[in-house]
Amino acid sequence: RLSSMTHIVSCAEWCSCRAILEDMSPNFTLLDQLYTQERLLNSGYTRTTMRRKLRTKELVSVLQGVYIAASVWDSFTPSLQVLARHTALALRDSTCVFCLSSAAFLYGLPLLHVPQNLHVLAGYSVRGAASDGILEHTSNEASVQVTVLRPNFRVTELSQTLLDCARTLPVLEGCALVDAALHRRMLAPEEILPRLQASQNSAATHIATHADARSGSLLESVARLQLVEMGLPAPVHRLDFEAYLLGTSDAHTSNRASDYAGVYRMLRTRQASFVWLEQRVGLAMVASDAALPHADAPTPEGWHMVQVRWEDFYPSSRVLREKLYPYFPQLG
């Protein structure tokens, strides 16, 4: 069965292939930094020279048979080192197919956990061993559809990747991946939600129920799911507010007209990510090291703003619960 081994990182280290590449110089090409043994030999290295440079730590072995200059490797962030290892495996063995969190990472989906191992499908030519951090997984599907991503990553098809992650990762993480794929319109809801619902896996069916394309970030996805687990009434998302103003949503008690401009400003400027109109409470969420957006902006009269950071609701929602308790006594 598919399984996943991962390593928790802080919110400052959330990683995705897309985010890493966006932060790099447009002239940077990771493939140019990697050297196969054949490329080194063709450039004039001898095997003796290679062994000496590895011993003196001028070269680093990214994977068996693929090397990089130590000065370049040491300049990489942990997430870029992960990308380099995936690139090295694709360079060394172009027939391998990445799956699970490795595939999600290469699709550019934001991960709560950096893949410490290289997850590939069994049955495809992969040289190496567990000592290289390469883990092979057997697919439950009769046939596997493969997608090729630039520059030359072969990965499981997106809906299959999301289904595999939903089955094997904790619900918060699996749902955040589905949210991100839907939000970016990488696939339509009908391409993934029925598959999750029909999977006969309790985590996957839970994700099918709670996945939401409106979540524009990991923060929103994780916080929204934590609120669901607390049993709180569904908050109004900023994308829902126009529907509320137009009268197409009557799930909340009416508010004074003078509230509308202030509440809309809170949502539009992301001063608040969610609001509860009946309780007149806004929830603002930011990463640990980020400033609260528009923190000095006035709160509409009669409203309360609850500000939380990443560590307030992940991995434990205890602090989030404590901060919301004055407005939701049922949390007591």
Write up this protein.
Helix 10 packs antiparallel against helix 11. This protein starts with 5 loop residues before the first strand and ends in an 8-residue tail after the last helix. 41% of the residues lie in helices and 15% in strands. With 332 residues, it is an alpha+beta fold. The protein is built from 16 helices and 13 strands. The strands form 5 sheets. A 4-stranded mixed sheet has the order 10-11-12-13, sandwiched between helices. A 3-stranded antiparallel sheet has the order 2-4-3.
Specify the overall morphology. elongated
Task: Using the CA coordinates, give the radius of gyration.
Answer: 23 Å
Instruction: Report the end-to-end length measured between terminal Cα atoms.
Output: 41 Å
| SS-based class | alpha+beta
Count every helix, treating DSSP H or I runs of 4 or more residues as helices.
16
| % residues in beta strands | 15-25%
Strand order of the largest sheet: 10-11-12-13
How does the SSE layout of this entry go?
Layout: E1 6-8, H1 17-23, H2 30-33, E2 34-36, H3 37-42, H4 47-55, E3 59-63, E4 66-69, H5 70-75, H6 78-92, H7 100-106, E5 113-115, E6 118-121, E7 134-137, E8 146-149, E9 153-156, H8 158-168, H9 171-183, H10 189-197, H11 202-210, H12 218-230, E10 236-237, H13 241-245, H14 257-268, E11 274-276, E12 281-286, E13 304-309, H15 310-313, H16 318-324
Parallel strand pairs: 6-7, 12-13
Antiparallel strand pairs: 1-5, 2-4, 3-4, 8-9, 10-11, 11-12
